[in-house]
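ok so dumb question maybe but i'm new to this and my supervisor (M.) told me to 'just get the structure for Cytochrome P450' and walked off. so i did the thing. is this what she meant?? sequence i used:
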Amino acid sequence: MAHEPVSRCPVLDVSGRSLHADAAALRSEAPAVRVLLPGGVTAWAVTRYDVIRALTSDPRVSRDFARHWPGRSEVPDGWPLAAVTFQQNFLNTYGAEHRMLRGLVAPSFSPRRVSAMRPGIEAVAERLTNAWAALGPGEATDLRATYALPLTMTVICELFGVPEHLRGPLGAAIDRAADTAASPEQALAVHAEIDARLDELVSHKRAHPGADLTSDLLMNPAEDGSVFTEETLKGTLFLMIGAGYETTVHLITSAAHALLTGPDVVTRIRKGELRWADVVEETLRLQGPIMYLPLRYAVEDIDLGEGVLVRQGDAIAVAFAAAGRDPDRHPKGPDDFDPSRADKTHLAFGHGPHFCLGAHLARLEAEVALRTLFTRLPRLALASPERTPDRLPSFILNGLTGLPVVPVPAA
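this is what came out, is it supposed to look like this??
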């Protein structure tokens, strides 16, 4: 299949307002569709469950931009996707290098180690809900900003030894890195801010090592006897800290929004008919926190059928959050929130060699957060039930900018 002229490529909506509708339109068109990203960069958008699953486990697909994306030389300065796409970490490597670098971090996220974190997560959730319970009747707060964000940020920052004074600035910079509507000037400023904050973290941990993952990475040699380069170290910290809280923030917020607009689900949980794990998995299927995660690259030509041929060196944008709504996978109510459905299959954590290391931790945090919230505050309600919450200005992240709630409704 010949490449579509750039003028005919659909443009991905950088505002994030219509992610699922746009993905559905692309899904109905072909196994992959050439789309236009910010900065005039083109990529193949993949939105079908089976195609995503196949490509993410296909050795003919790489995440290594340096080795396998000749188009990187055409990317303009101030590209809003640069902070994510060009980070030097194990996510953006291929083959043996990827396995080696990932292996340095993976043991810290094993199911056994994550399970041992439960008491600490429960303590943070209890502390935050206690503060909410002290609010006056009818007083509103933002569930994302004052519950989901501090819970997940505390957990991941304690795991990586991020000092208190750096948590807010680092988190704010990482948040802005996912803004696909950013101007070139804003994107360059965000990239510089992230780099400065990570430099501060690395310097702090060199001066104050401790029992945390950043200190381990500073000391842990690779199999060949070398250590992380400074850029690989900072890129790994950006990936693990950012992915460790950012995605789970949106998972918790999206799940809470779904529950507060369908209160019968909470009633069924209290009756023992459903589990909190059912809510978490159904939210991951319906509102996976990651939509397009830039980028992957074809190592050689890949024929996807239906006349679609992805050429060697072409960029591929995989829409992970779209996979769970594919009607070929979920023919009954793919766009409905139904935690009682038997098949909640999704690809929210990816698939294949790059499957998310933090999947166990994200599930545990979300389950603890939701159980604590709706048990401790059984009358929790939306502050403005008639208003649709605003969505993030991003096609990378799929989530809400905030969720105003009333923990203790007025009598």
